[in-house]
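Saturday, quiet lab. Running sequence design on the structure tokens for the scaffold JK sent over.
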């Protein structure tokens, strides 16, 4: 029965998305709430950017309803499943999501400074770590098997803010942020099922459910006919926060005291390796150029591929393929490779790929 509720949450979320998203489109065009094109953006005509407004309400309705029904029906069973001690962590997750969601809506409508958003992200990350959901170990990465609480809490807060902003910053072309998140949520949902973290699986599948109809509107919708929309900050901040919660929880499931590198930590972070690595590369590039690392530019992964002469759809397929490559690579090597050397291998492969793209850009510019 548990699997019925898990996959039912996906279907319910997708169905609600198909109902809510067209209404958001109608309101956006009625009130002319558009994302106007400029020199930094890829689109050439006004497009509504309130698609992410649908994310949090649908996710909360689906997750709460699925979990509530699951444990209500379990009480009538001869062998009821005990309610795991995750209620508080999910309440704090909801509070943090609502905070980021409201900031994102305000940013989409009137604009919010990055300093204010950063403060709210820190407060939301503090909520998640306050219930003990922080890194006690790195599973042997660089020889670190134990992290005291005074270092684990700020480090985990940094990771939460890092992941949240990575999803926000990678949202530059149609279907990219949502496509990468769909891949990550599918893998994280599978991990949760394998490790019997069923409530987390419901959350992952509910989030995946709303993303699927949005992705089709975002990628295949015709802007001139009023069928296209972007997720905006309301969607990307909410999505990044939920992904950070799932990655940290599923990456820290190893029984304490084993002292072995954790393959689940490698796999959990591998689901977001493209946006995470891209943020580091972009920030280092901005610092090297003497620019503010928090201000936007056109040096992200997708911008570089566009400069090689690729079309937008080709860039999307390429980046999604790169994400799948790293996930499969780490899934195969995690059981046999040292976690530190595997991390170094990922960095080397990413760097070689970026050097190859730089060469392709120079070749395209010469032509």
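Result came back. Writing it out in full:
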């Amino acid at each position: 029965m548990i699997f019925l509720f898990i996959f039912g949450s996906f279907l319910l979320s997708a169905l609600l998305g198909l109902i809510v998203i067209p209404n958001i489109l109608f309101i956006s065009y009625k009130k002319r709430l558009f994302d106007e094109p400029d020199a930094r953006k890829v689109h050439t005509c006004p497009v509504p950017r309130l698609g992410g407004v649908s994310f949090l309400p649908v996710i909360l309705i689906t997750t709460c309803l699925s979990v509530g029904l699951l444990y209500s029906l379990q009480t009538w069973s001869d062998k009821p499943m005990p309610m795991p001690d995750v209620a508080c962590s999910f309440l704090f997750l909801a509070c943090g999501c609502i905070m980021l969601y409201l900031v994102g809506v305000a940013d989409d409508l009137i604009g919010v400074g990055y300093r204010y958003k950063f403060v709210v992200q820190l407060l939301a990350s503090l909520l998640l770590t306050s219930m003990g959901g922080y890194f006690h170990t790195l599973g042997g990465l660089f020889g670190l098997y134990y992290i005291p609480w005074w270092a684990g809490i700020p480090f985990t807060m940094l990771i939460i803010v890092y992941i949240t902003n990575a999803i926000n910053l990678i949202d530059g072309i149609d279907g990219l942020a949502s496509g990468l998140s769909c891949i990550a949520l599918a893998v994280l949902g599978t991990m949760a099922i394998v490790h019997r973290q069923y409530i987390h699986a419901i959350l992952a599948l509910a989030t995946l459910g709303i993303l699927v109809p949005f992705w089709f509107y975002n990628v295949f919708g015709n802007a001139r006919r009023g069928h296209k929309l972007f997720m905006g900050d309301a969607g990307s901040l909410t999505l990044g926060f939920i992904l950070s919660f799932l990655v940290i929880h599923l990456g820290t499931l190893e029984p304490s005291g084993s002292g072995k590198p954790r393959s689940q930590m490698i796999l959990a972070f591998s689901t977001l390796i493209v946006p995470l690595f891209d943020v580091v590369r972009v920030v280092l590039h901005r610092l090297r150029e003497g620019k503010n690392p928090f201000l936007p530019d056109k040096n992200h992964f997708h911008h570089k591929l566009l400069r090689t002469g690729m079309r937008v759809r080709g860039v999307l397929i390429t980046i999604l393929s790169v994400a799948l490559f790293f996930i499969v690579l780490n899934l195969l090597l995690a059981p046999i490779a040292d976690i530190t050397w595997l991390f170094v291998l990922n960095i080397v492969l990413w760097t070689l790929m970026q050097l190859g793209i730089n060469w392709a850009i120079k070749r395209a510019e010469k032509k």
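Notes for JK: The first strand starts at residue 34 and ends at 35. The two ends are 60 Å apart (CA to CA). Ask whether to fix the surface positions before the next round.
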